[in-house]
């Protein structure tokens, strides 16, 4: 691997670590502010909202300058969101502050993935994605655990007695100390961003006319959905990220009902799923090539079926094993799909634009599924009913995607599309 790849990995690790720790702390903040239960999944909703709203613009922004610089600016925005969350005294102000962190994440993502296609040849993309996803998931494990630790009373009390000489931080409760520490982690990520190498790829200055950018983005969306391999990989990753975001909150509620776990312990079970994803991602990187990527689709069907088995689990160790299996299946099928989508997008329209299209579709899926989940919480639907409906939905949609791909293959052999020259 190129030397700069490891700098990218370090930057991604710390940024993702902070993202996941902040979600747990933000949930605890809403509870502390006596927010209604349906507002909890809305945290993730406002976080990803800018991914959808700014999709026509962030891709052009990411392709307009060195990716490391884009990532530095994005982490600075995240730090600003932390500062606003630090000052939050009302549930809706907390949601707005968390949305600012989402704004930074929306700008960060096209650069984070786009630089891989600039730095590495196509044959290394699955391996690189395996490492990036594995490391990202490791940061999810540690981040959710860190978030749970930061809201644990004993640890919070220890942080409160730590003070900086000659500086009044204004920290007077556990949640504020956690938010301040997370802001420091974002700052570490920003430091690594400064040392990400410039790949030498020509950067396009984005058009000042927003209508042109929207038109260009719409063209890129149509281009990727029309591509025989692009449409399949985009459909799979769109479903995966929507389901994954919803599963985060399902696990929290399921742990409360089935295992009688409080938030700080339930958050650690989220980390178990993430650990499984890391294992699956590493195995996929080792065993699955770019040309074999579409063969992993049946694992998505299996994942939905395994999710439904959660309703029968009452024992902690069985729960851990089941969550590991769910994560492993998810990681093994999403990494090759993600690599294939990046490759087709880079070939068709450029790295930044293709990742922006991917983010738009995936986060539109997240918004839709989180709204549905929030509605179910609003109507007080039992979590077991939600789990069965969720697992069945994932399996059915993945089955339909598989049939879609088989239909494409019956019309023409789509494998020759890997490696075609850029069309746009």
The biggest beta sheet is recorded as:
none
CATH class: Mainly Alpha
Number of strands: 0
Supply the number of helical segments: 15
State the CATH topology: Growth Hormone, Chain: A
- N-to-C SSE string, H for helix and E for strand: HHHHHHHHHHHHHHH
Shape: globular
Structural class: mainly alpha
Distance between the termini: 28 Å
Low-confidence parts: 413-417, 419-424
Question: How would you state the average pLDDT, rounded?
Answer: 82
CATH H-level homologous superfamily name: MFS general substrate transporter like domains
What is the CATH-assigned architecture? Up-down Bundle
Assembly state? single chain
Word description of this protein:
The chain has 424 residues and is mainly alpha-helical. The protein has a single domain (3-195, 210-417), classed as MFS general substrate transporter like domains (Growth Hormone, Chain: A), CATH 1.20.1250.20. Helices cover 78% and strands 0% of the residues. The protein contains 15 helices and no strands. The protein has helices at 3-32, 40-53, 55-62, 67-86, 91-119, 125-150, 153-160, 174-193, 210-226, 228-258, 263-287, 297-308, 316-348, 351-378, 383-411. The longest helix has 33 residues, at 316-348. The protein starts with a helix and ends in a 13-residue tail after the last helix. Mean pLDDT is 82; it is low at 413-417 and 419-424.
């Amino acid at each position: 691997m190129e030397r700069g790849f490891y700098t990218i990995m370090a930057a991604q690790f710390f940024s993702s670590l902070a993202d996941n720790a902040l979600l747990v702390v933000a949930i605890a903040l809403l509870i502390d502010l006596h927010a209604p239960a349906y507002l909890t999944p809305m945290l993730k909703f406002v976080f990803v909202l800018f991914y959808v709203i700014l999709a026509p613009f962030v891709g052009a922004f990411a392709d307009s300058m060195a990716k490391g610089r884009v990532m530095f600016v994005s982490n600075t925005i995240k730090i600003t969101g932390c500062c606003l969350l630090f000052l939050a005294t009302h549930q809706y102000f907390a949601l707005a502050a968390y949305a600012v962190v989402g704004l930074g994440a929306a700008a960060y993502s096209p650069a984070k993935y786009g630089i891989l296609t600039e730095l590495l040849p196509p044959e290394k993309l699955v391996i690189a994605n395996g490492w990036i996803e594995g490391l990202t998931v490791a940061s999810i494990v540690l981040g959710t655990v860190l978030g749970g630790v930061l809201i644990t009373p004993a640890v919070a009390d220890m942080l409160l007695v730590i003070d900086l000489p000659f500086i009044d931080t204004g920290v007077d409760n556990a949640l504020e100390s956690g938010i301040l520490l997370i802001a420091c982690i974002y700052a570490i990520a920003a430091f690594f961003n400064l040392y990400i190498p410039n790949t030498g790829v020509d950067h396009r200055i984005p058009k000042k006319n927003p209508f042109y950018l929207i038109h260009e983005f719409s063209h890129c969306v149509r281009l990727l959905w029309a591509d025989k391999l692009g449409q399949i990989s985009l459909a799979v990753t769109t479903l995966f990220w929507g389901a994954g975001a919803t599963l985060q909150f399902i696990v929290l509620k399921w742990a409360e009902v089935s295992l009688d776990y409080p938030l700080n312990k339930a958050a650690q079970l989220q980390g178990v799923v993430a650990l499984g994803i890391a294992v699956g991602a590493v195995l996929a990187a080792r065993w699955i090539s770019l040309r074999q990527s579409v063969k992993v689709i049946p694992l998505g069907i299996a994942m939905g079926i395994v999710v439904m088995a959660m309703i029968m689990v009452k024992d902690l160790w069985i729960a851990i094993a089941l969550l590991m299996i769910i994560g492993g299946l998810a990681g093994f099928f999403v990494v090759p799909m993600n690599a294939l989508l990046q490759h087709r997008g880079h070939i068709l329209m450029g790295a930044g634009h293709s990742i922006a299209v991917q983010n738009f579709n995936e986060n539109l899926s997240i918004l839709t599924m989180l709204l549905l989940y929030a509605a179910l919480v609003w109507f007080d639907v039992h979590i077991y009913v939600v789990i069965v409906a969720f697992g069945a939905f994932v399996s059915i949609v993945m089955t339909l995607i598989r049939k879609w791909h088989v239909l494409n293959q019956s019309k023409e052999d789509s494998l020759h599309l890997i490696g075609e020259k850029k069309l746009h």
